[in-house]
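Hey, quick one: can you model this chain's 3D structure?
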Amino acid sequence: MVTTAKSSRSSTRRSGAAAVALAAATALLAAGCGSDDKSDDPLAGEKSGDTVVVGSNNFAESILIADIYGEALKAKGVKVSYKPNIGSRETTYGLLKNGSITVLPEYNGALLAYLDAKATPKTVAETTAAINAKLDKKLELLEPAAAQDKDSVTVNADTAKKHGLTDKSTIADLKDIASDLVIGGSPEFQTRQQGLKGLKSVYGVEFKSFKALDAGGPLTQAALKKNTVQAADLFTTDPTITKEKFVVLQDPENLFGFENVQPLVYKGGLSKEGADALNAVSAKLDTAALLDLDAQVQLENKDPLDVAKAWLKSAGLD
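Sure thing. Here's the predicted structure for all 318 residues.
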């Protein structure tokens, strides 16, 4: 159910502002990203020979997943170079089209919103089909992972304990208790279908009140921790969930749409063996695993390349 009603933080984190200039992106350096074989200039053209160029957007999770993709390809003997931390989708999509990068971690719902803001798919398969209908013919989507990084209704540990909520509980389980709870989120969450309106119309859940905070950032995290709010809109792979023992409630009606991690590739630059290697990653990567990996990088300050290699080994993909 991906529509234009995506949260502002989703568009900021994954799509970026449409006005992002190419010149600004060229100034981004790969320093501190933690991966080897990486160019100092993320936009330097590289279409040479058999090298697969793995790119990433400018946030930590994208860089981590790019490392997973790159190391999975290396394990199959594919020559890989990295161009991390490039910028927003407005830049990376163009670089994929011209073959400057070969592989990019994508999120299917956000990509579809970028290509067709009016699309309203109801399944992952429909999401992929809708993307393919709009996707540049030089590009190809591979298989989606079960892992999703999307909006959620998340409760703090005290609230979960008090009401017997677990990670198997659904948003619908709040129906009889939400009138005693305060929910927090971005100001837009109060008026959007993928927010309070949808929680009421889809799940019959109405909260005691709403507290306007930031878009899943430190204000929202702190309010949930301090019990200023008992529920909040957080991304499903936010490492704070692990750190503070928050509980993410299941969204069986897909109010918050689909944000599956999915490789987007330049058709002419990836062999079938390479595509099979990335599809094997998708077959193993779920939301719980991605949350754990994000926590290692963002909370424990581990090198994302080391985290990627360790996960591939544990998944039998090294």
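One thing worth noting: The first helix runs from residue 8 to 15.
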